[in-house]
From TrEMBL:
Keywords: Membrane, Transmembrane, Transmembrane helix. The chain crosses the membrane at residues 118-141. This is V-type proton ATPase subunit S1-like. Belongs to the vacuolar ATPase subunit S1 family. It is found in: Membrane. Its main location: membrane.
Length: 198
């Protein structure tokens, strides 16, 4: 697949050539296409060649990626084929890249297989946060299971009223007549809580 731009600045006859291959894989029971190599040509000669990595899709699909580049900050899907050629002098970046080499119908792209990784930074951060929340939940359950409950036979009792102890000298006989003006009174010595007068 060749994209011909003609004359661009000092570049005469600039051409970007995509070399696509197709293979049949028994596990998926279908054909897959892949971008094998990218070449830059101008002045009717090949100036740079890049090997493509991880650019593939089912033959009935198209391939889409936000950035296909030779730069490391864009994950470098294009790698210079050799240290001896001029590929090192070129920086190639395609933005909103989509390609389909086979089974094109009515001039439109088929459903696109995106290059987004299953473990993007956002997904990894979500997994880490989920793990932290699970650890907190497990710790809370552990604390609840090992929580000591109150004795089930415990009954709330009101504290008894406090009464001062009687003097030792008063602990003699069980009863002693008290002298008063006409009435006979007795004090019960074995009771600590009250005194009864008759």
């Amino acid at each position: 697949l060749s994209l011909k731009f003609g004359d661009v600045g000092n570049l005469k006859g600039l051409v970007i050539r995509f070399l696509l291959t197709t293979n049949y894989y028994q596990l998926s029971v279908q054909n897959w296409f892949s971008l094998h190599r990218l070449q830059l040509l101008y002045n009717h000669s090949i100036q740079a060649t890049f090997n493509a990595t991880r650019i593939y899709a089912p033959a009935s699909y198209s391939y889409h990626c936000e950035h296909v580049s030779s730069l490391q900050r864009y994950d470098a899907l294009l790698i210079p084929s050799s240290a001896n050629d001029l590929s090192k002098l070129w920086e190639v970046t395609f933005i909103d890249f989509q390609i389909q080499g086979f089974n094109i119908q009515e001039g439109h792209f088929a459903y696109a297989k995106d290059c987004a990784s299953f473990f993007s930074p956002a997904i990894l951060m979500g997994l880490v946060m989920s793990l932290i929340l699970l650890l907190v939940l497990a710790y809370a359950l552990h604390m609840l299971i090992h929580l000591k409950s109150l004795d089930r036979h415990y009954e709330c009792k009101a504290s008894p009223a406090y009464f001062a102890q009687m003097k030792d000298s008063d602990m003699g006989d069980e009863k002693e007549p008290l002298r008063s003006s006409g009435n006979e009174s007795y004090e019960l010595r074995n009771q600590q809580f009250c005194k009864i007068y008759i």
